[in-house]
Amino acid sequence: MTDSATHNSQASTANIHHKETPFLLLNRDQLERNVARLRQHTDRFGVPLRPHLKTVKSVEAARLILTEGHGPATVSTLKEAEVFSAAGCKDLIYAVGIAPQKLPRVAALLKAGTDISIILDSLEQAHAVASFSREAGVKIPALIEIDSDGHRSGVIPGDNLLIEIGKVLHNEGAELRGIITHAGESYHCKSLQEHQAMAEKERAAAVACAEALLAAGLPSPVVSVGSTPTAHFSQNLDGVTEVRAGVFTLFDLVMTGAGVCQTSDIALSVVATVIGHQRQKGWIMVDAGWMAMSRDRGTAAQAVDQRYGIVCDMAGNTLGDLIMVDVNQEHGILALRPGSQQNLPDLPYGSRVRILPNHACATVSQHGEFSVVRDGSEEIEAVWPIIHGW
Fold first, then answer.
1. 227-249, pLDDT tens digit by residue?
2. DSSP for 268-336?
């Protein structure tokens, strides 16, 4: 990928102990290890990986994640699509159900040479896409979203709606690309066996729907599956043409709680400064609230509720049972987790901590840039801008 509007800042002389807090710290070496881990797994099956860039939202990070630095990729906003396309990534899936007013931007990307597919799951969307394709003189590629696990949206496998949508796309002016699904319920799996079963359920549903299209005389060149857990625990990818995943690049506490990674695999943290104490309450106050961490409480439904994040020292070592128990807009409250028999660590006014987030994607979106470090280094080697907007 080439430089874009979100250009790479040159190496900074800043130190993690000096930069004004709160700020987002990214360990580049850990990011690269996380990417290598999943690529090694999918390479076993000979199936390409299409990373979801909604997690990092950064051109510079994308260069380390994508095949040969330029694709293929998945995005969750058209702003991401436009920025990554301008930087050289020309093979994209916009993986949010298409809204009609966004079709002109999709067509503009296609006419400029970017192969971007959209997703949909209704006849209304299919008619709108086909009609716009005819009017704009460009066949918009569309994938039919399948509900493989009851998580969110998509056509139920076995529903004839799949064929009806396919016929509209194929016969009325658009381009039917195939099938896409996202096993979001995999985030709630609690064991290796559950993860493996969910991965197979996702694969089987997608492949069955692709076969149904083919049996109806319709094309289905793409069979796209993916979530970070199913991507890591898949045991069979027969019939699948690509795997998508996003949070695997950075990992977070939800993925730790789901058994996909360890806390040591998390490449992302928020650096905060101690600004006060409420000793009678057992509280340590920091200058990072929900504006820095996000309000995501994804671990609340897991066996261990991490509240708003696990607290580490500046070397990345967890500080016992210390967690971020509550947040206001710009205030964070650190305390021992309920039931802990430990003593509150000594963190004087002005000292710094690193906080591991519940949901990396949500935390990244709160910030304007990554401060990038290497293993064991306290020097910020680069500052990478983060894409905002839709």
1. 999 999 999 999 999 999 999 99
2. EEEEEEEEEEEGGGTEEEES--HHHH-S--GGGGSSS--TT-EEE-TTS-EEEEEEEEEE-SS-EEEEE
